[in-house]
Every structure is written in C-alpha cells, then in structure tokens.
Specification:
Elements: E1 6-12, H1 19-27, E2 34-41, H2 47-57, E3 61-66, H3 71-81, E4 86-89, E5 95-96, H4 100-110, E6 116-124, H5 145-151, E7 164-167, H6 169-174, H7 185-195, E8 200-211, H8 221-236, H9 243-266, H10 272-276, H11 282-304
Parallel strand pairs: 1-2, 1-4, 2-3, 6-8
Antiparallel strand pairs: 4-7, 5-8, 6-7
Helix pairs in contact: 5-7, 5-9, 7-8, 8-9, 9-11
Length: 306
C-alpha cells in the first residue's frame, strides 16, 4: 500500500456530461499523491469515451467497467481496486475543493486516532461560483456521533459522502456499503462506524460541493423513505447494539412512518405502502401506522414543553 496515497472512487452511471467536471476537481488538487478509479456501472452513454480521454492523459486515473450493479456495489468495487491508505468517494455529478486532500490529510497527521475526517459542503446547480449553503443545515457533528446520525440526520444535520476522507482500515473492520439498500447506504455506513466508536474529526471549511439536478435519486421520495427505514431497522434489529441506540433508531423509525403518512396526505410523490413495505419490517410498519397519531401527540407535547 502506497504511503499516504489517496484513492478517489468515482462511481458513474450515464453521467458522461458531468464526469469531466468531477475528474477536473481531482486534477486541481494541491495534493498530488492520489489515484482516481472510475467505476462505470454499465453506462450506455459516452462515459467510456470520456473516461479514456483522462486515463490516456494521466496514469493516475484508471477506468473499470462492470455490468450494472448499483451505487453501493460500484463503491465497493472501487475499494477492492484501491491501493491507497485513504479513501475518498466522489459521485460523478459532484465536485471537491482543490485543497480538500491537503487539508484533511493534515488533520489525520495531527489527529492520529481519527478514522474519518469531514468538512462542510455547499449546494450548486451549474457552477460552484453560484453555490449556496442549504438554509438551516449544518455539517458539524455535535456531541455523540451515533446519536447525531440517528436523531438529527436530515433534520438540520447532513453530510454528503464526498465531504469525508476515510481511513482505509474502516472498511476492513466494519464493512463495506450494503448493496441491498435502495438508498441511504451512506447513513447506514456512518451508523455502523459510529456504533463501533469510530472517531470522527471535523475540519473547518467548505471542501465539497453537492450538485442539485432533476435526475438525482433524492427526487424519488418513495425510494428515499424506503432506504432510510431499512437503515434504521438494521440498527433496531441488531441485538449487538446498545439498547439506547436501538430505541433512538425505533423512535426515528416511527417519525419517518409519520412523515410518510403526512407526505401521502399532502399529495406528495410518496407511495405510502410501497415506502413502508420493507423486508423484515412488516410488523414495525403496521405498528408505526397504528401508533403514528399517538406519536404525533407526544411530539406536540414534547415541543410545547421546551
């Protein structure tokens, strides 16, 4: 394994039009000891042509094609092929700040016990010059990392996967991305790592840019709810985890069930029973629907008591 080599993993599926910008944000890094692995997940557009132009120009950039297997499988393949001590993920439609590697690696050198270093991010559509910070959102973990991921995720607290820089050993100790989750494979990963006590260290500054566009998976509310419910159920049903964290996960599960109910009532594009019908979750889904009115009453009481 190369000393202090950063392995950048770019999974892509029919994003040939975004891919050059993502790769250029790697080429512009002030830290030069990196490799970039493009995982083409069965694209049918010009992804291979675009990627091979970069591989021909810089031998640090590599291209790997696979039959379509999904985002998690693509990232896992990238980890398998990676030679670096540090792992950086970058979806093909997102971008990195030019100093991300140098600044976050410096934190690792200073904080020898750190497993994950992360920074702030901004949202953008076309160019980062017009990027903005999502209103009400923050990127710094406050207190217990696992509690933050369980109780605050997407309720003012959010960190996209490319904001992090991971120590490679994390994946050897606590596992890869869950290929069975339709979405929220990233929060599932963070929950597993934080439940095992992985030290997260915050590094100030905006080091990542998250693109907002219509073809984003996040636009599918039903799929997003389903993935999140599955990730929470994994915590609830794992007897190896502390009971306090499992109860937090159950609490948040009921909250998401309620949100699904409310989204359906509001007429949003979220098919309630499709969202709640998750493998192994029938009992919790039914209980959640029945108890949602009671849950809402308790939440109102809790809010008025503050």
């Amino acid at each position: 394994m190369s000393n202090n080599l950063i392995s950048v993993i770019i999974p892509t599926y029919n994003y040939a039009h975004f891919l050059p910008q993502a790769i250029n944000s790697i080429l512009e890094q002030t830290y030069a000891n990196w490799e970039c692995i493009i995982i083409d997940d069965g694209s049918t557009d010009d992804t291979k042509v675009v990627a091979e132009k970069f591989t021909a120009a810089d031998d640090r950039i590599k291209y790997h094609y696979q039959v379509n297997a999904g985002l998690s499988a693509s990232r896992n393949k990238g980890i398998e092929l990676a030679k670096g001590e540090w792992i950086q993920f970058l979806d093909a439609d997102d971008l990195l700040h030019s100093e991300k590697f140098s600044k976050q690696l410096a934190v690792f050198m200073r904080e020898q016990d750190a497993d994950v270093v992360y920074s702030d991010y901004m949202w953008f559509e076309q160019t980062i010059q017009a990027a903005w910070i999502a209103p009400g959102y923050y990127s710094a973990i406050k207190g217990d990392a696992c509690k933050a991921f369980l109780m605050k995720w997407e309720k003012g607290f959010s960190i996209p996967i490319h904001s992090y820089l991971f120590r490679r050993s994390c994946f050897m100790r606590w596992g890869l991305f869950d290929i069975h989750l339709p979405t929220h494979e990233d929060i599932d990963l963070q929950l597993r790592y934080s439940l095992h006590g992985a030290p997260y260290v915050y590094s100030e500054g905006v080091m990542a840019y998250y693109r907002v566009h219509q073809s984003s998976m996040a636009k599918d509310l039903t799929l997003m709810h389903k993935g999140y419910l599955l990730a929470l159920l994994k915590v609830v049903l794992n007897s190896d985890h502390r009971s306090g964290y499992r109860l937090m996960a159950l609490h948040r599960y009921f909250g998401e069930v309620l949100n699904s109910c409310l989204d359906t009532i509001r007429g949003k594009k979220n098919r309630l029973f499709t969202s709640l019908n998750v493998p192994g979750g029938y009992l919790f889904s039914f209980t959640g629907i029945v108890l949602s009115p009671i849950y809402l009453i308790f939440k109102l009481i809790e809010k008025s008591a503050r």
